[in-house]
Amino acid sequence: MAEETQNQDKEQKKEEIDSLLKKILYQGVAKASDAIDYVSKTVSGLVGENKISNEEGKKIVSNFTSTIDTKVKDMEARLRETISGALQNVRPASKSEVEELRKRVEALEKIVAGLD
Domain boundaries in the chain? Predict the structure, then answer.
């Protein structure tokens, strides 16, 4: 029963971390999308002012989009790796460990009470 509770706790923590990971990634993707929009508008302005050709503009936007996609994928992989490593170190206390700590606290409370 205690092992089942530990597994449920670990699964709940994993779900919470996955949810947080998704939020972080969505924010990153939103910022990347904003950056792509900004670059696209800036490049369109440069094309409109005949400072660069339409082909050069498309190439700039394509390269930038490709770079952003790669960076987002790298960020996702690093976050997943970091969180996975952290989850490996998360282990809820067993029932026997909690019981042992409870006994120690009670013993210390008796000692402290005797000092008064």
Answer: 2-115
